[in-house]
Amino acid sequence: xxxxxxxxxxxxxxxxxxxILRNGISEICVKNGGATQSVADQEKIAALFPxxxxxNEITFQKGQNTAEAKKQVVGVILSGGQAPGGHxxxxxxxxxxxxxxxxxxxxxxxxxxSGLIEDDYIIFDDAYIDQFRNTGGFDIIGSGRTKLETEEQxxxxxxxxxxxxxxxxxxxxxxxxNTNAAVLAEYFAAHNTGVQVIGCPKTIDGDLKNEDIExxxxxxxxxxxxxxxxxxxxxxxxxxxxxxxxxxxxxxxASHVALETALQxxxxxxxxxxxxxxxxxxxxxxxxxIADSVANRAAKGxxxxxxxxxxxxxxxxxxxxxxxxxxxxxLAGENTAKFNALPAWADKYAFIQAGLTKAxxxxxxxxxxxxxxxxxxxxDPHGNVQVSLIESEKLFSEMVKTNLAxxxxxxxxxxKFSPIHHFLGYEGRCAFPSNFDADYCYSxxxxxxxxxQYGYNGYLSKVSNLSKPAEEWVAGGMPITKMMxxxxxxxxxxxxxxxxxxxxxxxxxxxFAERRAEWAVETCYxxxxxxxxxxxxxxxxxxxxxxxxxxx
Length: 552
Ligand code: FBP
Prior knowledge:
Blueprint: H1 5-11, E1 28-35, H2 42-48, E2 56-62, E3 73-78, H3 86-100, E4 105-109, H4 113-117, E5 121-123, H5 126-130, H6 151-164, E6 168-173, H7 175-190, E7 196-201, H8 219-240, E8 244-249, H9 256-265, E9 269-270, H10 273-278, H11 283-299, E10 305-310, H12 313-316, H13 318-330, H14 335-341, H15 345-355, H16 358-366, H17 369-374, H18 392-410, E11 419-424, H19 426-429, H20 435-453, E12 459-464, E13 474-479, E14 484-489, E15 492-497, H21 507-521, H22 537-540, H23 545-551
Parallel strand pairs: 3-4, 3-6, 6-7, 7-12, 8-10, 8-11, 9-10
Antiparallel strand pairs: 1-2, 2-13, 4-5, 12-13, 14-15
Helix pairs in contact: 3-20, 8-9, 9-21, 11-18, 13-16
The structure holds 1,6-di-O-phosphono-beta-D-fructofuranose.
Residues 80-81, 83, 174, 203-205, 250-252, 311, 388, 429 line the site of 1,6-di-O-phosphono-beta-D-fructofuranose.
């Protein structure tokens, strides 16, 4: 593999640990916080997790290490979508294990949770791990979306652990993967396997957080990457002055990524799904809101602009989510084959018209044909519409175009509207981790090793006080059950980690909401530029605006 100069330079970067973890391992002890309880449904969650519920939150502090000195054999998996910094979690974990005892062993199971079930692994050594320090991607062992959730799978994992003498598994994943980590931890405890499970909070979506877990890793780098690109697009728009750019940004459900990108770049428009749901906005209202900005700017002679659309937006539009639910019903069972066999779009349209309620058909009818057809594309394994495949950036630009044509006919708009579309997602998921993510991830891994050493099970590696310099970060652990509640999934009540959506009374949204009216009409763009890895801390080590505002 040919290495870029940056990659070679990044190999040499020493990630910063929280002050407490810079002490020798023998000088780190545990401070117990209080017992915990789940965010909701406490009785039900307690009953489902009798062995792991309600445990103490803990932080590490300076003092005599009282952990049992024993050889650690640990397995690790990466689970779900890529997020910058994953490699450093493994590096931190490996270095922590080796610093504790050079005989400790780290197994990396390949391709995500399926690697654990299929017993497909590598054993890390210095030469292998050194190639991945401070790099993006998950290619060190790969990742996958297989769900680890059945008793049969847990029994296989227990056998795999027994075979290799593994006493702890570290699961690096998002809300679903860590929910499964909690269930696995409970299974291991209930079956006296002696195997511990530790989770690490990963996802660029930024929706795995609470008052303890201040952010998931990868969010910082991914949003800085998107903000760089949006800033460049803004500058191009402001130079050429002839295009409206509709930029969809990843984030399967929550709009944290869109909001953070907007806070960094001050575009003319940024939709926030959570607000759309709260205000029960219709597609027509959202369209009108964007068209107002286009028309007001055109009146100033500016036929250009930038609009950020969160990937998950359509599910937050009440009438659209009803439409999707009806389509899922309409195509249930044998109906999918029937529908697919219809020869022409006109026949399919008639089938849809006959199957939808009047209200949903009215919504369907105003959608551009391209979007109508996308609603009937590939289904997910549960037979549902894959909302992430819907090109919502094109949906809104098409609807705005129609809206502006009506305004033109009424004589209230006389501009020129030329939209250009972008989708930013994969570009940010494997970027070289920012210094923040490189440091945070390395700390999460190193800290996970400390939690293992102290015998914790069903805990999330927790590094907090993140808006401060790394020296002041606090290291510890939080029982995963603290983040759980009961939700309806596939027709059943299930214990799951509650997804953190954008809070409309939170500081990041309020900051945005107070300024967006001006941004919609004026040209207030900010150009963040590329992530900087070497140079002054005020340029290289800044956190996200979201974190800064939340902690201000
Ligand atoms: P995770 O929650 O697993 O971290 O993944 C999030 C995400 O990056 C979303 O933003 C996006 O919708 C999705 O993954 C894309 O998934 P895939 O990689 O399977 O295309």
